[in-house]
Amino acid sequence: MAPRIDMAATEIGAKLMKRFANLHTVLQQSTLPVSTQELVSLRASQINGCAPCVDMHTKEAAAAGETAVRLNLVAVWREATVFTAAERAALALVEEGTRLADHHQGVSDETWAQVREHYDDEQITALVALVGLINAANRMNVIVRNQGGSYEPGMLAAVAS
């Protein structure tokens, strides 16, 4: 299945990519651990079926030192013993924040309380923004049928500079 359009080759697409990359840089500079950011981005991308984002976030996480065991278990994090309580709270938030239509009130009070227990306001702001950003990226990639497999660590950061 070939991509329907190369959005990055358009003027507006190139501008959007740069802004997405700059937002990613802002989030990476937050106090929310980069490993948590990559796990959250990977989980949303798995749920949304976004091959280029699964490719990107798996490779970025590995380049940042994430283990293959943890990366392989993200899709089944509830049944895995390798994630901290804080990471579990973030993964629950991204799942509920990604599947908004499945929960009439969006993110549950229970999940929000778990997030509040482990993260401060700056980190929660970064986490909420990350959930929104990755879901937007996933949707655009899926709509235009972008393919995964060619991403190299650092490519997104290069777009921001």
What does this entry look like structurally?
This protein is mainly α and 161 residues long. The protein is globular. The mean pLDDT is 95. The protein has a single domain, classed as AhpD-like (Up-down Bundle), CATH 1.20.1290. The protein is built from 8 helices and no strands. InterPro entries: AhpD-like, AhpD_core, CMD-like. Pfam families: CMD.
Q: What is this structure's SSE topology?
A:
Layout: H1 11-28, H2 34-48, H3 51-63, H4 68-73, H5 85-98, H6 109-118, H7 121-144, H8 155-160
Helix pairs in contact: 1-7, 2-3, 2-5, 2-7, 5-6, 5-7
Strand count: 0
Radius of gyration: 15 Å
CATH architecture: Up-down Bundle
Please give the share of residues in helix. 55-70%
Structural class: mainly alpha
Tell me what portion of residues adopts beta-strand conformation: under 5%
Number of helices: 8
Any idea of the CATH class? Answer: Mainly Alpha
> Could you say which overall geometry the principal axes of the C-alpha atoms support?
globular
How many domains? The number is: 1
The N- and C-terminal alpha carbons lie at a distance of 31 Å
Q: Output the helix-strand order.
A: HHHHHHHH
The profile of the biggest β sheet is: none
What is the fourth-level CATH superfamily? AhpD-like
CATH topology: AhpD-like
> Could you name the ranges where pLDDT drops below 50 across 5 or more consecutive residues?
none
What is the assembly state of the chains in this entry?
A: single chain
What's the average pLDDT? 95
